[in-house]
Fold MYO1H protein.
Amino acid sequence: QLQQKVVASAVFRGKKEGYVQSINQPFLDTRLKETDINPKVLQLIHGEKIKYATPVIKYDRNGFKARDRLLVLTQSSAYVVEMAKIKQKIDYATLKGVSTSNLSDGILVIHVPEDNKQKGDVILQCEHIFETVTKLCMLANKQNLVKVVQGSLQFRIGSGKEGTMVFTVGQEPQVFKAKNGQLTVV
């Protein structure tokens, strides 16, 4: 617990809104029990020990449609899971980085290499952003690759194309595709 809080402090302190409020809340070992995960998925990850699982909203790379998913972290990989299907597997060894905004949204982008196995970067929204990013970067041993960005960030859509995500402050939280085609997070 203490080690995780030290990493969270190194990554987020003074950089992301809501960090100070998160300090008193202990990180949970996981947000979902193994029984909450479809047995087919457990079979597909071939007995890798699940270290952390949490419900997330994944945004499509094209059109940014919101989809309910699970983020499952094992000793060696992160999986984005839909019901009984693994939608994307990211080996920690190939993880290029993780980005999040400096605002109080729960958005994180997992940056993956440009190769045929990966469709592009993964855009997720989760309720426990500090806990999730801390566990991901500790399991991957890539604390130094977490970026807290201001204003906007670039992400890879796949096949060499890039997208832009813009972060703004507004009355109520929302995520939508703006007229200019950018993903806007309020």
Q: What stands out?
A: The helical segments are 2-12, 19-22, 39-44, 129-140. The chain has a mean pLDDT of 93. The chain has one domain: 1-150. The chain is about 20% helix and 40% strand.
